[in-house]
Write a structure and sequence with these properties.
single chain; 207 residues; mainly beta; five-stranded antiparallel beta sheet; globular
Length: 207
């Protein structure tokens, strides 16, 4: 596997897993090359499902169920593939951030993303026949910081969303009132936050 795929992701930036699927992505380590690929593998033997080309480095990955693979790029795009497809072209791709997408999380038909623009965004997926697309009328965005956001987490039980990044601060909001709710602001650390997770008992773990 390493011999087959390593030339396309010399700098591994993001990994996601769902059930028996694993996706990996990153950037090429070569001067003048800006495109990349996202590789979908079948666990446990890492059999190749497809290699999906992108016009920019993949900076975030997530699965929406076992049926859809999502990728955020350094250009601020969100790309979507059906995992049952061949990956030759994305089923949907559009710009969702003014700068790199740094983290994604999906729940049911909703996707949350954060990026270098300091924005937390919510996107809704709908199916157009058998092809997924983003439903623009249900998108919501909230600028939380003047600095990049690098992590996002969702607590499905409470409906709370947490986002954090370069300003060493965790912002927590109710998903249902993302646009106008006053965020709970929690300073944390001194060197930026790169990962978040809810523990299920009201607490948040940050790394």
């Amino acid at each position: 596997v390493a011999k087959q795929y390593a030339p396309h992701i010399e700098r591994l930036l993001t990994v996601a897993a769902s059930g028996k699927l694993l996706a990996v992505g990153g950037r090429r380590d070569a001067v003048g090359i800006t495109d990349s690929s996202v590789h979908l593998l079948q666990l446990p033997k890492l059999n190749a499902r497809f290699s999906a080309p992108l016009d920019a480095a993949a900076t975030a990955l997530a699965f929406c169920g076992d049926n859809l693979l999502l990728a955020g790029t350094v250009k601020g795009d969100l790309a979507i593939w059906r995992t049952s497809g061949d990956g030759k072209t994305s089923d949907w791709q559009q710009t969702v951030h003014a700068g790199a997408v740094r983290a994604l999380v999906a729940s049911d038909s909703q996707i949350l993303s954060v990026g270098d623009d300091g924005v937390l965004a919510v996107h809704a997926i709908e199916m157009d026949g058998d092809r997924p697309r983003l439903r623009e009328r249900e998108q919501a965005k909230r600028r939380l910081s003047d600095q990049p956001l690098r992590a996002v987490a969702l607590d499905a039980a409470s409906g709370s969303v947490a986002a954090a990044g370069a300003d060493n601060t965790i912002y927590v909001l109710p998903l249902a009132q993302l646009g106008d709710a006053e965020p709970r602001v929690m300073p944390c650390g001194e060197r930026g936050i790169f990962a978040l997770a809810f523990t299920g008992d009201g607490r948040i773990v940050a790394g």
